[in-house]
Amino acid sequence: MIRTIDQLEEYETMISIKNLHKRFGDLEVLKGIDLDVQKGQAIVVIGPSGSGKTTFLRCINILETPSAGTVTIDGQTADFSKPMPKKQITSFRKQSAMVFQHYNLFPHMTALENVMEGPITVQGRKKDVAKKQALELLAKVGLAEKADEYPFQLSGGQQQRVGIARALALEPKVMLFDEPTSALDPELVGEVLQVMKDLAAEGMTMVVVTHEMRFAKGVADEVLFMDGGVIVERGTPEEVFNSPKEARTQRFLNLISEKEEI
Ligand SMILES: Nc1ncnc2c1ncn2[C@@H]1O[C@H](COP(=O)(O)OP(=O)(O)OP(=O)(O)O)[C@@H](O)[C@H]1O
Ligand SMILES: [Mg+2]
User: Fold this and answer.
1) In this structure, which ligand is nearest to the CA of 226?
2) CB neighbours of residue 3 within 10 Å
3) CB contact set of 33 (below 8 Å; sequence gap of 6+)
4) With pLDDT > 70 as the criterion, what percentage of the chain qualifies?
5) What percent of the chain has pLDDT over 90?
6) Longest Cα pair distance anywhere in the chain, in angstroms?
7) Mean pLDDT score of the chain, rounded to an integer?
């Protein structure tokens, strides 16, 4: 997104990640990641399969416990050099919400009930308050008329938009998206990307793993290329896509441009 100088002066750090490591047994998947994300920025992460993108997102949300390093969100720091009390993990996790490749909606609940569930069970909201908020969120993702439908009655794109509304219902400061459109039929990708684009325009801080080049070019403030558990290269979408500096980035972009037109 293009911002004015005035807006730049208002920048504050939302996410600060220092020396993040994650190993699964002998396999070191994240090998020291450093990243600062300013409030309202949208960061796109690209990289080959197995490079650690999903693990990285899961570590920000402590769905995986990092082996070392720190993650700070809006001033609250999780330091993984020592064990964290469960209460602190719960409080830290509330700051971000994740949208997965497979939307995992509860099949026995309507779209509305899916969106209301988190606020009621996690945040202890009253039912009528949660319902009002859920209806607003469904309207925001363009699904006001589908509130009473069950997941099987919705298209993949609609289900993913319910998934986004469900994540937003937890009022996160940061949204983490893990390839949210890669399981969708091509004609359904656009409607989900549009919802994400609107969120970015509203100033939501987002870290998005996606290979959707048009989204990255149109929305990302910065693109990170990850490979082998490190950030190999980062820059504006123009810098990374049009003039990548690293051979590994060039090779990866060549591979994906064979699959889709960039
Ligand atoms: N729970 C786990 N236990 C053991 N190894 C894991 C676990 N989760 C991920 N890994 C390994 O960590 C590496 C990185 O996986 P990750 O899912 O983060 O990659 P990715 O970049 O998201 O790949 P993709 O593009 O295919 O989604 C892989 O080698 C994977 O096998
Ligand atoms: Mg992944």
Assistant:
1) 1
2) 14
3) 17, 19, 20, 21, 56, 69, 229, 230, 231
4) 94
5) 89
6) 55
7) 93
Tell me the two tokens of residue 248: 């590994």
Residue among 33, 45, 46, 53 whose CB has most ligand 1 atoms within 8 A, to mutate? 53
Specify which residues 207 forms β-bridges with.
Answer: 43, 176
Among the bound ligands, the one closest to the CA of 211:
1
Cα 134 from chain centroid?
20
Is residue 34 within 8 A of residue 18, CB to CB? The reply is yes
**Mutation probe of ligand 1 site: the residue of 51, 57, 208 with most atoms within 8 A of C-beta:** 51
- Note the residue count of the chain: 262
- Measured CA to CA in angstroms, residue 131 lies from 134, 137, 139, 162, 173 at distances of 5, 10, 12, 14, 21
The pTM (predicted TM-score) of the whole model is 0.93
On whether the CB atoms of residues 235 and 223 are closer than 8 A, the answer is yes
Q: Express each pLDDT in 210-219 by its tens digit.
A: 999 889 999 9
Rg, the chain, Cα only: 18
CB-based pocket (< 6 A), ligand 1: 24, 27, 29, 47, 49-55
